[in-house]
Amino acid sequence: MAISLKENITVGFSDFWSRKVRSIITVMGIVLGTMSIIVVLALVKGINNQTMKWMMERGGLSKITVKRNWEYKNPEHVRNYFTWKELVLIRSLIPEARYFNPQQRQWVRLSYKDKDYRTSVHGVLPDFSKIEEWDVQEGRFISAFDIDQSNDVIIIGTKVKEELFGNKKAVGEVITVKERRLKVIGIMAFRYMKNSGAIGNDNSFSYLNRRTFVPLTTMIHKGSGSDNISSFTLKAQNAESAPALREKLNNIILNLRRGLPVFEVESAKEEAEEMAENQKMFQTIFYIISVISLLVGAIVIANIMLATIQERTREIGIRLTVGARRRDIFVQFLVQTILVTTIGGILGIVLGLSLLDLVSNFLGIELIAGIAMILVALLVSAGVGFISGIIPAIIASKLDPVEALRYE
Amino acid sequence: MSNIINIESMKKEYKMGKITVPALNGVDISINEGEFVAIIGPSGSGKSTLMHIIGCLDSPTDGQYSLNAELVSEMKKGKLAQIRNKQIGFVFQTFNLLPHLNILKNVELPLMYAGFSKRNRTRTAKKVLEEVGLGDRLKHKPSELSGGQRQRVAIARAIVNNPTIILADEPTGNLDTASGGDILSIFSDLNDKGHTIIIVTHDPAVAKRANRVINIVDGLIQDGNIS
Is the pTM of this model over 0.80? Predict the structure, then answer.
């Protein structure tokens, strides 16, 4: 004797269509609410993705960086660089580290024939390429032999190659740096990552393409003339063991510097976690705003449904007269409200998805949509229908048939 | 003929704030299956209240009402809905059709609440609408029909579940004499087919169609059960 759900949905649909304008105005709040949910979820996912991509591009989550702590004023003038001997000691204390790369950097002018280019030259070990997960696209990188012999060789970034050699072959040519002749043995792979929100230069990695690399020993013995190293990087076995290694390394360095924080030791994994933690706050704010906008939508819908029920009092009376049970009336109005908000939700999802490109271009952040967020938006819109429909539906089902029939 | 409706010393009072307004003051009525009864009385006499109670839309303050030898006061709300759906058909003065549904859908309504499948519903409703002469108007909205046609739709809706009792409240009140006459003829036909017809009216001309007239004034039956 019961009227089926399918039946109710059909009745709900025909009610929806027989009151098109009102239905559409009713759902506007839900359309905008679900639209913002879709955009916000896609934005959050996009930002997280961007952060993770950046981390991976910069050597992954197992990377650990040691560098001078610029926030520490160093009033006791503790030595703020490492000597070669200290580095050898540190390396021997952390055998679990897979790769280890101390480096020096100088600003120089490179010359080839009549062309000059000012850039930075980095003295590194072969491990550099492994730690940064960055190899040559042509020729070869620095070898252990180059380090041993302090060879006069240089590897250049693509931008440097372009500036000095244009389209001509660079590997095998000799360039002059501080009156020392260095043979070009390799060209680093071109690096690119889309720059968020920048005008003009869209490559956040263009600075990497301007770099050049020489063996660390060559730089110490023939360039800087000093073995002072103020920063180094290393790689743990995996991302999971990175925080423990960072902790151990930090203690070793503190011991070497009388417990004073002259250096800071950072692990990419913890840094990523910290970023994710910071982003959570923004995510929460986004979610709260979306929920509030949906609640406002729900209140509007509840209000309209109450008015609708008053308007349809006579209809309810007629339905009761021809055999509708109170449950049928309750379900009819509840299903109808849920239907209205779900239709609004679907519209909002479609609108939200079609807005993603626009928002992405406007903010300069890649937005990523997923099935899960569409389901979330759909469930939320149906949930709003349930919340805003339940009280009007109860009121409708409690109407007295005789009074309802008399209602003008 | 078996007794289908039996009402004993029924009272109905309405509370309007602190004042209690009596509508029925102890009514006894007995109606047999297959009768054509007119309940006649001036406005405010309580005849509509009586009809609502007979139709299980309202409940009395006091007294007993049994329908098919079952006490209505002991029935649950779901059972009452089932009785309104299957045993009683209503026809009103103002037609009470749903304006946004076409007449086929209007007539299908009781079948829908009875749980019929969509296909059975449409077939049955079509057949009944053809019987009342509206087979060519199925997709029309009530507002596109004349008063007489609308009342025929209402009758089709009332009889679509093949109920034993048809209750009509001033069914000709909004109609001209000719269409009113047509409607009354339909009631006579239905009575011939075995339906019990109860018409509430203030119009003696309408009451003449019935086999039996019950006079009600100020909530009391005047002449008892006189034919």
Answer: no
